[in-house]
Design a protein that fits this description.
By secondary structure, the chain is of the alpha+beta class. It contains two helices and three strands, in the order βββαα. It has one domain. Helices cover about 30% and strands about 15% of the residues.
Length: about 70
């Protein structure tokens, strides 16, 4: 098993892929196993954020709220 210090990170400030702990943790997304996965971090973050928002909307009874559709109670 590889330690996180040997994995790849996406630097949120610079947009660069880094290996190990080059930047402060607040500026990093990861860890990722490959540089290619780290480079795709912005898209991964967008997909996960969208999925979380949709899940929360379903749990809160806001069907369609995340997709911009009107709720049934309006």
């Amino acid at each position: 098993m590889t330690s996180d210090s040997e994995k790849y990170w996406y630097n949120l400030k610079t947009g660069e892929v880094e290996k190990g702990y080059e930047s402060p943790s607040v500026d990093r997304a990861g860890p990722f196993d490959t540089p290619e996965e780290a480079a795709d971090a912005p898209e991964v973050i967008r997909r996960r954020s969208r999925a979380w928002a949709e899940e929360e909307a379903r749990e809160d009874g806001w069907s369609g709220a995340a997709s911009g559709e009107p709720r049934g109670d309006q």
